[in-house]
Amino acid sequence: MASHKTVHYLIALLKAYGINSIVASPGTQNSTFNFLVQEDKDFNCYSVIDERSAVYVAIGMANELNKPVAITCTGATAARNYMSGLTEAYYSETPIVACTFYDPWTHKYNIAPQYTDRSVSQNDIKAISVTLPEIKDDKDKINVLLEINAALSLAKYNHMPVHINCPNIYDYNQELPTDIWTTEYHYEKFSELKSELKNKKVAVHIGQHKKFTKEEECALSEFAKSYKIPVICDHSSNYQGENKVLIAQLRYIVNADIRPDIIIDLGGISGVYNKCGIFNNAVLWRITQNYKYSARMNRPLRKLLIGLEKNIFNELKNDEPANFDFFGIINSRISEIKYPDFPLSTTLISRELAKHIPNNSILHLAILSALDGMNLFNLSKTVDVLCNLGGFGIDGPLSTAVGQSLVNKNKKVFLLTGDLAFFYDMNILGNRHIDKNLRIILVNNNEGAAMRFNPIMEKVWGEKQKVLVTAAGHNKNGAKSWAEANGFKYIFADTKESLSKQMEDFCKKDYNAPVIFEVITTIENDKQARIPTPPNNTAISQIPKTVKLSNMEKVFSVRNEYSGGKKYKAVNLMGVRIKLKVKPKEEK
After folding, report:
1. Fewer Cβ close by (within 10 Å): the C or N end of the chain?
2. 6 with 30: CB under 8 angstroms?
């Protein structure tokens, strides 16, 4: 990795955004920054000793230039002197980029001179405040690029003051990094971007999303069909339109040729950890209505499209016949997937539920295992799906499903949940408003399965995790007594046969009470069912423990990474990154 420091990336991005006017106040902590910009002919630098005056000088310049102006100061109380002027900039919507600097060796728990705590500040002096880390590896560099872009794009396109707190490193290397990227804001004339989508592998990705209106779904469907591209999502996206691809199904067809060049991203958090490498090579275009700057999977955010989704997709729709059927290739491979004979597991339960769940019903998925298992299987377009992904915690799936059932008396409301989430939220079972339209499938493997699916944790700690990590052994007698005490009908299965025999009745039969269907599984079965068959349908157990990396690349997501001057192969194994050292002879 290059020797560039955080300050070099800050200066390079200021230049890339065309922010070349700088009002500098003297000092030690910002000395590297001041020296580098004064020696760079692309910057117009002005010296103002008093930081109180410096901000107002910058405001005058920004108003005349109609573009952002940067200001910079040292540590101690210097930055406090910016507050009056930044308040003016905030309310007058004047784009000032306040670059303050700090000594990375000092912090609030260390008695050191000139330290001031900048972790919080007044709401009305900046639109965003970021504190950049020292760059020690590639992960730090990615974070630095994202945070600087978030701040500078907001200053350039939203005309608001921003604050960047940068570590001071005494490094006067005048060469600036070139491995940078910038974000463009687009408010209108989206049709002008169509040329950039031609001859590229494009995909739409949707995270958690509110229910689409007919107009929104139609616009996205027509856009996807016009370019013959996939709309990659999970059930929490609530997308029921054309060219839909469930992201979990991509595990079975992992290959470099299905990885998009451009991903148009929308929606909120995605509950699918394993993104199957689809983001590995992609740059992002992100759609937002609220100007919120957010990337996904730490990929470069090249364009932020601000507006209504339906308007954007209508304008971006292709006017010419698409010459590459990207969706057709992916869909063809998915249609050829031969799922294994799953053991009794969350995955098998999900498949059976997907097969029998009635049209026009509601499905609530608890996080992690329940969501992951169901995302392998298609559901009727009439089934609404919800998952609590905002806080993404164990809290509340049972209570949320109850809430859904209370206001949808004419629909069956199903909940698929694991044992920890169910018993954690169990108090709601006694609520007097619960009616017979609520159906709960409790997958009980007697511990927190999600932690046992992590291959690194499992290899290092194994069964020892049961004590505290996965909280095994609670509620030993299951849910039967709780269910019957609260007026629920209780159904039980501990074999594949009993599951299959009862699932259709559970889904479709009319009962006179709410129902809890408890299915007993094991961690071993659940782990086995989560491992996908490789593209050639060779069983995982048949893959040798030692394989060539060239062969692994055909099955898993593998890419080169550099850290500390050393080359690694980074393997995305079921959503967990594993770094493997590359031997010198392989590097040749």
Report:
1. C
2. no
CA distance 15 to 217: 40
- Tell me what the mean pLDDT of segment 151-164 comes to: 96
Under CATH, what is the fold of the domain 6-180?
Answer: Rossmann fold (3.40.50)
C-alpha angle 210-214-215 in degrees, rounded to nearest 5: 100
Contact 345, 416 (CB under 8 A): no
Q: What is the pTM of this model?
A: 0.84
Give ∠ CA 139-141-143 in degrees, rounded to 5. Answer: 70
CA atoms of 443 and 371, how far apart (whole Å): 12
Structure tokens at 460: 């290092």
22 SS3 class: strand
Instruction: Please say if the pLDDT value at position 202 is more than 50.
Output: yes
Domain 185-335 and domain 346-529 have a common topology: yes
Contacts of 581-587 spanning 24+ positions with Cβ under 8 A: 586/549
How far lies 295's CA from each of 111, 287, 299, 480, 572, in Å?
Answer: 37, 10, 7, 45, 19
156 SS3 class: helix
Res 550: pLDDT: 42
> Looking up tokens 């804001």, which residue turns up?
185
Q: Which CATH architecture best describes the domain 346-529? A: 3-Layer(aba) Sandwich (3.40)
Tell me, what's the pLDDT at 3? 77
Per-domain boundaries in the chain: 6-180, 185-335, 346-529, 545-587
**Residue 54 in tokens:** 């410096």
| Residue 540, both tokens | 């995982």
If one counts every other C-beta atom within 10 angstroms of the C-beta of residue 458, the result is 15
Tell me the pLDDT tens digit for each residue of 345-389: 999 999 999 999 999 999 999 988 888 889 999 999 999 999 998
Instruction: Give the chain's largest Cα–Cα span.
Output: 81
**Sign of torsion over alpha carbons 91, 92, 96, 101:** negative
Cα–Cα dist 388/411, whole Å? 20
Nearest to 76 by CA among 30, 125, 128, 133: 30
Phi-psi region of 395 (alpha: psi -120 to 50; beta: other; left: phi over 0): beta
CATH class entry, domain 185-335: alpha beta
DSSP string, 55-115: HHHHHHHHHHHTS-EEEEE-STTGGGGGHHHHHHHHHHT--EEEEEEE-TT--TTS--TT-
pLDDT value for 25: 96
Question: In this predicted structure, what is the pLDDT of residue 465?
Answer: 86
